[in-house]
Write a structure and sequence with these properties.
Blueprint lengths: L1 E5 L4 H12 L3 E8 L3 E17 L4 E6 L2 E6 L3 E7 L2 E8 L5 E8 L1
Antiparallel strand pairs: 1-6, 2-3, 2-8, 3-4, 4-5, 6-7, 7-8
């Protein structure tokens, strides 16, 4: 896998172009921060979609039964394979890391 930083100007375009490839795959979401430690937010839920709203500065990971929202992302990194993003990480406005690992097809 190749890790790359997605520049803020490209966030919306990146997720618009690549979010569809994640649809139906399963994901695990973990949130890590000095104030909360490591928290498991979701495990093995199917991805419905991933979008970035630049107006509201909101990265949404829509999962089956759960919307995981990342407010005011500061940085976004993705680990890609030939099949698309396998892991992506976003640092929110409070310095917490949100790690989304795509775990299945």
């Amino acid at each position: 896998m190749t890790t790359k930083k997605i520049e803020q100007a490209d966030w919306r375009r990146y997720f618009d172009a690549n979010g569809g490839a994640l649809h139906g795959r399963k994901a695990t979401v973990q949130v890590i921060g000095p104030d909360i430690g490591a928290q498991l937010a979701a495990e093995g839920l199917r991805i419905v979609g991933v979008t970035y709203d630049s107006k509201d500065q909101l990265l949404e990971i829509a999962l089956d039964g759960l919307d995981h929202l990342i407010r005011h992302p500061q940085e976004i990194y993705v680990d890609e394979s030939p099949h698309g993003a396998m892991v992506f990480e976003a640092v929110d406005g409070e310095g917490r890391k949100h790690i989304v690992q795509v775990v299945g097809a």
